[in-house]
Amino acid sequence: MAFASTFRLGALVALILCALVVLGLSAHLTSKSEQAAPFHRIFAFEGLGIATGAITIATVPLMVGVDLTRKGAFTSMVVVELTWLDETAACRETQAVAAFGFLGWIILMFYWVFLLIISITAASHGNSRVWFSSVYDMNVYDSKEALMSHTNNMGTMQSHHTQQV
């Protein structure tokens, strides 16, 4: 059973270190958000990070301290730790939801930039209807000269490839 006790202590110490990082990063982000936002808006993930970091930092050292100073304490009972860890996992899951929401926002932002760039490129190549076409049907080379040039280049490349084979 010494292995389980050592593993528990190592996991809880690592958890405390992670909670310190989460608390510090969330507090820093909150500070930056308050400086940047005109109405001092705090995002949900910032508050959630501060709350979970603070609760973890407040409860885990207490559990470890009680366990080291007092044998058979209720905080060391398996049922208590499983219940506490399940609640902590729920908090972490909400953090994961916030993180994936933010990741989705980043993906959409990259797509927006990509769509803007190819639309501007299509407009600069003479496709004046690019802004009203669907993305599926969009052709960057939609002007007659550019389209014919693009088609001729494709035909030349295909015939060149056929001759090599």
UniProtKB/TrEMBL annotation:
It comes from the Eukaryota. Keywords: Membrane, Signal, Transmembrane, Transmembrane helix. Residues 1-26 form the signal peptide. The keyword Membrane applies. The chain crosses the membrane at residues 42-64, 102-123. This is MARVEL domain-containing protein.
